[in-house]
Amino acid sequence: MEYDIPGEREPSLAELGADTDLAAMTEFEADLDEHASSWNRFLGETSRHVLDVGRSRRIAPPKIRRALSTRDGGFSAPGCDTDPTRCEAHHITYWEHRGETSVSDMVLLCVKHHHMVHEGRCRITRNEALDPGDPSYIAVTRVRRVTTP
After folding, report:
1. Does residue 138 lie within any of the structural domains?
2. Neighbour tally for 134: CB within 10 Å
3. Do the domain assignments include residue 2?
4. Of 119, 122, 118, the residue nearest 140 (C-alpha)
5. Per-residue pLDDT at 123
6. What domain range is 127 assigned to?
7. Is residue 88 one of the residues assigned to a domain?
8. Domain total of the chain
9. 112 part of a folded domain
10. Which of 30, 38, 57, 141 is the most buried (most CB within 10 A)?
11. How many angstroms separate the Cα of 147 from the Cα of each of 1, 141, 144?
Protein backbone atom coordinates (compact mmCIF):
# COMPACT_ATOMS: atom_id res chain seq x y z
CA MET A 1 0.00 0.00 0.00
CA GLU A 2 1.50 3.36 -1.01
CA TYR A 3 0.91 6.67 0.78
CA ASP A 4 1.84 9.44 -1.64
CA ILE A 5 -0.24 12.21 -0.12
CA PRO A 6 2.06 14.68 1.72
CA GLY A 7 1.58 14.36 5.46
CA GLU A 8 -0.32 11.07 5.15
CA ARG A 9 1.09 8.22 7.14
CA GLU A 10 0.63 4.50 7.05
CA PRO A 11 -1.86 3.35 9.71
CA SER A 12 -0.46 1.34 12.59
CA LEU A 13 -1.31 -2.33 12.99
CA ALA A 14 -3.41 -1.43 16.05
CA GLU A 15 -5.40 1.09 13.99
CA LEU A 16 -6.01 -1.59 11.37
CA GLY A 17 -7.20 -3.95 14.09
CA ALA A 18 -4.51 -6.46 13.25
CA ASP A 19 -3.87 -9.29 15.65
CA THR A 20 -0.10 -9.12 16.13
CA ASP A 21 2.48 -11.02 18.08
CA LEU A 22 4.96 -8.32 19.18
CA ALA A 23 7.64 -10.85 20.16
CA ALA A 24 7.46 -12.51 16.72
CA MET A 25 7.67 -9.14 14.96
CA THR A 26 10.70 -8.13 17.08
CA GLU A 27 12.41 -11.45 16.31
CA PHE A 28 11.67 -11.01 12.58
CA GLU A 29 13.19 -7.49 12.60
CA ALA A 30 16.30 -8.78 14.43
CA ASP A 31 16.61 -11.52 11.82
CA LEU A 32 16.44 -8.90 9.05
CA ASP A 33 19.20 -6.93 10.78
CA GLU A 34 21.41 -10.05 10.88
CA HIS A 35 20.87 -10.82 7.19
CA ALA A 36 21.02 -7.36 5.64
CA SER A 37 22.31 -8.65 2.30
CA SER A 38 19.12 -10.66 1.86
CA TRP A 39 16.66 -7.90 2.74
CA ASN A 40 15.77 -7.12 -0.82
CA ARG A 41 14.87 -10.73 -1.47
CA PHE A 42 11.93 -10.56 0.92
CA LEU A 43 8.72 -10.03 -0.96
CA GLY A 44 5.91 -7.71 -0.01
CA GLU A 45 5.52 -4.42 1.73
CA THR A 46 7.85 -5.17 4.64
CA SER A 47 10.96 -5.31 2.45
CA ARG A 48 10.06 -2.03 0.72
CA HIS A 49 9.98 -0.27 4.07
CA VAL A 50 13.34 -1.73 5.03
CA LEU A 51 15.14 -1.05 1.74
CA ASP A 52 13.33 1.88 0.21
CA VAL A 53 11.98 4.99 1.91
CA GLY A 54 11.50 6.73 -1.43
CA ARG A 55 11.39 10.51 -1.28
CA SER A 56 10.19 10.61 2.34
CA ARG A 57 13.71 11.27 3.63
CA ARG A 58 17.03 12.21 2.04
CA ILE A 59 19.39 10.68 4.59
CA ALA A 60 19.66 6.87 4.52
CA PRO A 61 18.30 5.28 7.70
CA PRO A 62 20.53 2.81 9.57
CA LYS A 63 18.99 -0.33 8.01
CA ILE A 64 19.65 0.96 4.49
CA ARG A 65 23.21 1.92 5.45
CA ARG A 66 23.79 -1.60 6.85
CA ALA A 67 22.40 -3.17 3.67
CA LEU A 68 24.67 -0.91 1.56
CA SER A 69 27.66 -1.86 3.72
CA THR A 70 26.87 -5.56 3.33
CA ARG A 71 26.31 -5.32 -0.42
CA ASP A 72 29.29 -3.10 -1.18
CA GLY A 73 31.65 -4.83 1.26
CA GLY A 74 32.19 -1.44 2.84
CA PHE A 75 33.00 0.97 0.04
CA SER A 76 32.45 0.44 -3.68
CA ALA A 77 35.47 2.03 -5.40
CA PRO A 78 38.29 -0.37 -6.28
CA GLY A 79 41.33 0.06 -4.06
CA CYS A 80 39.61 2.22 -1.44
CA ASP A 81 39.56 0.66 2.01
CA THR A 82 37.71 3.37 3.92
CA ASP A 83 35.69 1.94 6.78
CA PRO A 84 31.96 1.93 5.90
CA THR A 85 31.14 3.90 9.05
CA ARG A 86 33.20 6.77 7.62
CA CYS A 87 31.48 6.65 4.22
CA GLU A 88 28.57 8.69 2.94
CA ALA A 89 25.45 7.19 1.36
CA HIS A 90 25.29 8.74 -2.11
CA HIS A 91 22.18 8.88 -4.33
CA ILE A 92 23.10 7.50 -7.77
CA THR A 93 20.23 9.49 -9.25
CA TYR A 94 20.88 12.76 -7.44
CA TRP A 95 18.30 13.68 -4.80
CA GLU A 96 17.61 17.00 -6.53
CA HIS A 97 16.88 15.03 -9.75
CA ARG A 98 14.17 13.01 -7.98
CA GLY A 99 16.49 10.26 -6.72
CA GLU A 100 15.12 8.00 -4.01
CA THR A 101 16.55 6.83 -0.73
CA SER A 102 16.78 3.12 -1.45
CA VAL A 103 19.37 0.37 -1.69
CA SER A 104 18.87 0.26 -5.45
CA ASP A 105 19.64 4.00 -5.84
CA MET A 106 22.44 4.43 -3.29
CA VAL A 107 26.08 3.53 -2.83
CA LEU A 108 28.60 4.10 -0.03
CA LEU A 109 31.37 6.53 -0.97
CA CYS A 110 34.28 7.86 1.04
CA VAL A 111 34.52 11.66 1.14
CA LYS A 112 37.26 11.76 -1.52
CA HIS A 113 35.39 9.59 -4.02
CA HIS A 114 32.09 11.30 -3.23
CA HIS A 115 33.65 14.61 -4.30
CA MET A 116 35.12 12.93 -7.38
CA VAL A 117 31.65 11.70 -8.42
CA HIS A 118 30.16 15.19 -8.06
CA GLU A 119 33.10 16.68 -9.97
CA GLY A 120 32.65 14.18 -12.82
CA ARG A 121 35.94 12.35 -12.13
CA CYS A 122 34.22 9.08 -11.11
CA ARG A 123 31.19 7.39 -12.62
CA ILE A 124 28.69 5.09 -10.95
CA THR A 125 26.85 2.50 -13.02
CA ARG A 126 24.21 -0.05 -12.11
CA ASN A 127 23.72 -3.47 -13.60
CA GLU A 128 19.91 -3.48 -13.72
CA ALA A 129 19.92 -7.18 -14.67
CA LEU A 130 21.14 -8.03 -11.16
CA ASP A 131 19.37 -7.92 -7.83
CA PRO A 132 20.19 -4.66 -5.94
CA GLY A 133 21.63 -6.82 -3.12
CA ASP A 134 24.23 -8.40 -5.43
CA PRO A 135 27.76 -7.02 -4.85
CA SER A 136 28.16 -6.59 -8.65
CA TYR A 137 25.03 -4.40 -8.91
CA ILE A 138 27.11 -1.20 -8.50
CA ALA A 139 30.37 -0.29 -10.24
CA VAL A 140 32.44 2.83 -9.50
CA THR A 141 35.00 3.72 -12.15
CA ARG A 142 37.36 6.64 -12.67
CA VAL A 143 36.73 8.83 -15.65
CA ARG A 144 39.85 9.37 -17.71
CA ARG A 145 40.14 12.90 -18.96
CA VAL A 146 41.60 13.28 -22.41
CA THR A 147 43.65 16.41 -22.84
CA THR A 148 44.56 17.82 -26.19
CA PRO A 149 47.90 19.55 -26.67
Report:
1. yes
2. 13
3. no
4. 122
5. 92
6. 19-142
7. yes
8. 1
9. yes
10. 38
11. 52, 19, 10
